């Protein structure tokens, strides 16, 4: 039985991990850290509100005793400057990684990145460079285990909805094709994604960059 921390649980990706953790017999306790309350009750669930995620140091005494952190926070880079995107992507992730590694280097840290991320940090696409830098930092931090989850197309299940309007509209249009799309090894679902994150704790992998194909395989173990 594992105790886990989830960030970004108010979004579609983080919510998918949360729901699977609450249902999983392998997870005993879930701590979600959010800016705004989920307003959800469950025997396994605890919530900490943190208005400024760069101030995670202020709650570090409440982060002990956990086996994993599923860092699912993320924003679209559309319309953002590189400086602003760097702050909410790299700096926030580093703040969490620094604190968690200090108090418990034996934790497993999963960073939800994105398909097309640039590990060289030198490419032309801004968001890919920043996510690549974030992945590199996280994987070099010194955790017991860590994974850069390069999530691609993900289909919502169990009533989960995207908070991004155009994503929600796209899902409505594509919903009749979901049964066909789910057959692709390169497309995953929120259910499989959540199960795969849990299974990184149960079935450690030598591969540290996980694609949708890896997520689907890991979910089925």
Automatic annotation (TrEMBL):
GO terms for cellular component: membrane. InterPro entries: Epimerase_deHydtase (IPR001509), NAD(P)-bd_dom_sf (IPR036291). Residues 4-102 form the NAD-dependent epimerase/dehydratase domain. This is Epimerase. It is found in: Membrane. It comes from Prolixibacter bellariivorans.
């Amino acid at each position: 039985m594992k105790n886990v921390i989830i960030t970004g649980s108010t979004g579609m990706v983080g919510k998918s991990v949360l729901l699977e953790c609450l249902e999983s017999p392998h997870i005993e306790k879930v701590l979600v850290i959010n800016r705004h309350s989920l307003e959800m009750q469950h025997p396994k669930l605890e919530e900490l509100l943190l208005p400024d995620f760069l101030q995670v140091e202020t709650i570090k005494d409440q982060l002990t005793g956990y086996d994993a952190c599923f860092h699912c926070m993320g924003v679209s880079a559309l319309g953002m400057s590189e400086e602003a995107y760097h702050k909410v992507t790299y700096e926030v992730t580093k703040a969490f990684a620094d604190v968690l590694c200090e108090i418990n280097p034996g934790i497993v840290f999963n960073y939800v990145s994105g398909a097309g991320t640039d590990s060289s940090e030198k490419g032309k696409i801004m968001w890919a460079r920043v996510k690549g830098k974030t992945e590199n930092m996280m994987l070099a931090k010194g955790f017991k285990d860590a994974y850069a989850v390069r999530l691609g197309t993900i289909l919502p299940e169990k009533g989960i909805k995207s908070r991004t309007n155009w994503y929600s509209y796209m899902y409505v249009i594509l919903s009749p094709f979901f049964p066909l799309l789910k057959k692709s090894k390169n497309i995953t679902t929120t259910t499989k994604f959540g199960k795969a994150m849990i299974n990184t704790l149960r079935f450690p992998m030598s591969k540290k960059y996980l694609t949708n194909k890896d997520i689907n395989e890991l979910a089925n173990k």
